[in-house]
Structure formats: C-alpha cells, structure tokens
C-alpha cells in the first residue's frame, strides 16, 4: 500500500514541477505505450507469486516468442494469424513444462524456471538471438500502430 502512496507522490511532484509536459495526454500515451509489454509480463507473474512460487522464465519466453513469430512470418512465409497461434502454443508448452517440473517432479519453482530460462535463452541463441527486422508484414506492424481514442491498441 505504501508503494501506491510513493507512486502518487512522485506523480504529484513531477506534475507540480513540470505541469506543461508531465501531466499531458501525450505523455500519458507515451508512458502507456512504453510500459504495456512490461505490465503484461508483470501481470503474468501475479498468479505464481500469489501461490508463493517464482517464474524466472517469463523474459526468456517472451524473447523466444518474438523470434519465433517473426521467423515464421518472414523466412517461412506463414500467415500472421498462424504464426501467432503457433507462437502461443509454444508459450503454452513452456508453461506446461514448467508446471510438470514444479508440480509432478516437485522441483522448486525458482530452480525449475531458472533452468527453463537458461534453455529458452539457448534456443534464442540457436535462432540467432534476433527477431527478423525486415519484411514483417505491415498488417502485423499495424497491430501496434492502431489507436483507439488516441491510445495505442496493444495497450
């Protein structure tokens, strides 16, 4: 609860010091856009933390997902939706593997997800550790560019 008060105090402080730039709709949109993916990842950790468990593989899974979806669209030539569905299935498989190690084999969640994170980073390196930066369909890129009430759609 005290973190909420500190957060509110920081907003108030910057709002007083820089009212023409900090408390603007454009700055609000920028903050939302920049932090949307981080917020989604943080929300995905809410359930494990509530269960007194850890998931250290979220960052590795996200990095691998970016590489897989772009690799399937550009070099392989799959459609956007098929690439996204296959990438989501890879994510589900990662989650099921984590659950198997933690629940069935009784490996500590910290150790199991740390190991999974290492495997996922290894897979990223095997793929070249970079997503495809060229040739990605505009329809896929437009998902992040589309706005609703001036707020980016992916927020």
Q: Can you lay out the helices and strands and say which pair or pack?
A:
Elements (H helix, E strand, L loop, with lengths): L1 H16 L7 H20 L1 H5 L7 H16 L6 H25 L4 H18 L11 H8 L1 E2 L2 E2 L3
Antiparallel strand pairs: 1-2
Helix pairs in contact: 4-5, 4-6, 5-6
Poorly predicted runs of 5 or more residues: none
* Class based on secondary structure composition and strand pairing: mainly alpha
Order of helices and strands: HHHHHHHEE
Spatial gap, N to C terminus: 25 Å
| Main sheet properties | 2 strands, antiparallel
Q: Strand fraction band?
A: under 5%
The strand line-up of the biggest sheet is: 1-2
What is the overall shape?
flat
Task: Give the strand tally.
Answer: 2
Radius of gyration: 19 Å
Number of helices: 7
Helix content: 55-70%
Instruction: Compute the average pLDDT.
Output: 88
